[in-house]
Amino acid sequence: MDNNGAKKKTLSDLLAVMAALRTPGTGCPWDLQQTFATIAPYTIEEAYEVADAIARGDHDDLKDELGDLLFQVVYHARMAEERHAFAFADVVDAITTKMLRRHPHVFGTPQERAAGAAPGFWDRAKAAERGDKEPAGILDEVPAALPALTRAVKLQNKAAKVGFDWPSLAPVLAKLKEELAELETEIAARDGEAGAEAIKEELGDLLIVVANVARHLKLDPEGALRAANEKFIRRFRYIERRLAEDARSPAQSNLAEMDALWDEAKAKER
To answer: Which fold has domain 135-219?
Structure first.
């Protein structure tokens, strides 16, 4: 029962709602038009909203966002069922079976449980599952659709496992300075369209080293950037509030004044 005494809805109820939305003739016209491709962006967006709720420590929002993400799984499963490919129950069966298989130190024989989780067990389990589907190269299994910074870290993690990595953070920081200098050189020599492409390439090189710095520090660059975005929003809103005290907007100010207010916001945070 919920707080109002009503019986709580179940997963079966959610599956029934999804089926009704996709029923021709009586379902929702918008839902009936959707495909895997059109729904995929919403799936990604909902995953980010889950991460945002976690970062904010908002458990009420997290509950709602996890529900939205679950609905995305139900949505894709329903469309697959309509194509006679698989159903939601198959999704549940597949992931449960996989987790049991990948955790012999928890669900295996007494001997496997006693042996514990040996280092690298997860990667070995995944490699065993791939079998004949082993990718052509060790980097091929990193999905191309990941956010670029996250993918950069995963690519470098894969390469590091076969020894292609700096032994410490110091040479990575040196490489960061090198790439920044190369970017500055290309900007100074800017020359039309070719120059713009060279600048873009050097910027990309700089960003992939930034991702490597984060990896060596065992930090999530996406999380660090999200935090920096929130800090930027917080400080800029301070500028807006301070200017509003004089009945002005940022457009009615200038860089020097706003920069001073930025420093003021920064000092207050300390």
So the answer is: Helix Hairpins (1.10.287)
Could you tell me if 71 and 49 are in contact, meaning their C-beta atoms sit under 8 angstroms apart? no
* pLDDT tens-digit series, residues 104-127: 889 988 888 888 877 777 777 776
- Contact by Cβ (8 Å): 23, 15: no
Cα angle 183, 186, 198; round to 5: 90
Token pair, residue 62, equals 């997290």
CATH ID of 11-100, from 3.40.640.10, 3.20.20.70, 3.40.190.290, 1.10.287.1080:
1.10.287.1080
Distance CA 98, CA 218 (A): 27
How large is the average pLDDT for residues 228-251? 95
Neighbouring residues of 135: CB distance < 8 A, sequence distance ≥ 6:
141
Whole-structure pTM value: 0.65
